[in-house]
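#help-structures

NK: newbie question. if I give both the sequence and a SMILES, will the prediction place the ligand too? trying with zinc ion
OV: yes, paste both and it writes out the complex. here, I ran yours:
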Amino acid sequence: MYIFNQEKKRLEPTETKCQYCGVEHSIHMEHNHFIPLYKEADRTNIIVYRSVKFKKIPVGIPRCKSCLLIHLRAETKAARIAWGVAVSIVVLTFLIWGLWGIFSIFAGIFIGFGGADFLQDKLVRDKGIYTKLEGAKQNEAVQDLIISGWSFSQPTA
Ligand SMILES: [Zn+2]
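OV: that's the protein plus ligand as structure tokens.
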């Protein structure tokens, strides 16, 4: 069961069983993970609430405090490691090849963002729980929205 929160314009779960570990319960609405789902404006099945149409709606996935902390710590740690490596590589290439090192900046950005995402998922899985996206994919409300054409990524154009 989900309730539409008019003020925050999001779907809040009434279910509290954590969908990341499947053991604990969510004790606070803000501990839940809100994942945005998107939909093209000219399609049908858009969520309509008091004649307002939504193209983007955050859906709350029940999450316990322990899983919240695992997600947060993994995010911070992954970003620190990935960007640390990225910056070191850029600095090193400048030291070795001088100005040609400028090309490594692109590689650095790629390593920073890509590495952070990859590491974050790995750190979360190492703790034995689902990643933010994996947990969301198990969620019935999310699955229903996906079936009716909503998506995890923002529609282009
Ligand atoms: Zn949990």
